[in-house]
Amino acid sequence: MSASRETVQDQILPAICVEAQHRLGQTLRSLYERTVDGEPIPLDQVDLLLRLRHRERELQRQR
Fold first, then answer.
1. First vs last Cα of the chain: how many Å apart?
2. What whole-number distance in Å separates Cα of residue 25 and Cα of residue 3?
3. What pLDDT does 32 receive?
4. What are phi and psi of 41, to 5 degrees?
5. Global pTM?
6. CA–CA separation, 52 vs 60, rounded Å?
7. At 33, which helix (H) or strand (E)?
8. How many DSSP H helices and E strands does the chain contain?
9. Cβ-contact 57, 49 below 8 angstroms
């Protein structure tokens, strides 16, 4: 999508008031806490995090 098309689409979208944004945020946080937040991290994601941390340490040693 071109930058000019994105700008036009952004202008078309209606804005929501601060109060509605706050309520929406609270609702989404509540849903997240009841569902995703209580779930264990899948092993493939744990592996990815460990590999990223290992790579990060390697890069720090090279400095």
1. 39
2. 28
3. 85
4. -75, 130
5. 0.41
6. 12
7. helix 18-34
8. 3, 0
9. no
Torsion angle in degrees (nearest 10) through CA of 53, 57, 62, 63? 100
For residues 33 and 26, is the Cβ–Cβ distance under 8 A? no
In this structure, what token pair is assigned to residue 32? 């997240």
3-state secondary structure of 42: coil
pLDDT value at position 6?
58
The residue among 14, 36, 33, 37 whose CA lies nearest residue 25 is 33
Q: What was the pLDDT predicted at 2?
A: 54
Q: Are 16 and 24 in contact (CB under 8 A)?
A: yes
3-state secondary structure of 61: helix
